[in-house]
Design brief:
By secondary structure, the protein is an alpha/beta fold. It contains twelve helices and 13 strands. It holds the Pfam family Glycos_transf_1.
Length: about 375
Amino acid sequence: MGRLRIAMVAPPWIPVPPRGYGGIELVVDLLGRELLRRGHDLTVFACQGSDPELNVVALADDDWFNDLGTPDQRVREATYLRRVYQFIKGDQFDVVHEHTEYPGIMLAHTLGVPFPAVATMHGRIGPKEHDFLREVEREIGLVAISEAQKVGSEDIHWDAVVHNAVDAQSLRFSARKDDFLLQLARITPDKGQHVAIEVARQANLPLVLAGKVDPDLRSREYFTTKIRPYLGDRVTWIQNVVGEEKKDLLARARAMLFPIAWDEPFGLAMVEAMASGTPVLAFPRGAARELVDPGVTGFLGDTAEELAQLVGRLGEIDPERCRASVAERFNAGRMADGYEAAYELAMSSYAEPLRPGHTMRMRGPRRGEPSP
């Protein structure tokens, strides 16, 4: 592939790369650096505090994060995206890569951005999201982050499935594990911390819960009633784990627990743990079936009792092989290969306006489809 001019749009809340939590921003950072290494001309739109090595245009203030989850979130996001697409319309790019999902796709559509666009869908695709994607599927190259994410939306025209990546070399590795279990996740009912507590109790191992409590009322009540009463010598809660402390926990834990209560479309924390040589014990929901290689990088179980029993099989996992498997399957090069193919498809199926003044340049038929 030749050199491309790429506009990559990150969300406005967290710097790229993130200093703590920020899964999308971590993906943008890894992908952006690999695209630059390959010689592409990349511009990343993000918030203040992002790494200038990524050719960042910072169009959101660094304190806007405080508005996330408040009534001001929507107007902040709209302000940022209006600035982004006014900038993009005034420049020349070969392709736009959207990571803000629905607001960014909608604004690109209404403003008539005159370049082909690719959008990575990072979240759940439910019936309402499905309806929206059906409206834009021929104008935007849609990319899923797992096969599991597409379940229920197989009728959507997906251009690609590209797994997220981690930088295994930046994570700490330890072949020797300490006697504790870990769950690294936001504290919310969907993440199943109450199940992790039960798994650790039945396995007779201490548990470390690392993650902030989500600010919504449901999550705060969940923490108060289901988690806080069990905190003590056997269950430790660390509210904000970042940097070296996070790497240390990931490398030393006997296993990462992932007893999720929803069909999570990826699960970057699982991949980070496996890249640290730490196996994952997970419920077989969402993308866990794609990410966990049973007997190599972890095990899958249907109940807390099954996961507790699987703790006894952790000695079968070779940490070196676990890390090597993840480094091969979920690396930045492989992710960039997938997105370069998505960019190429978006550009090859891009059609000029049918009439002067038309505000949205429509995508032509995809490969293998008949012309209308």
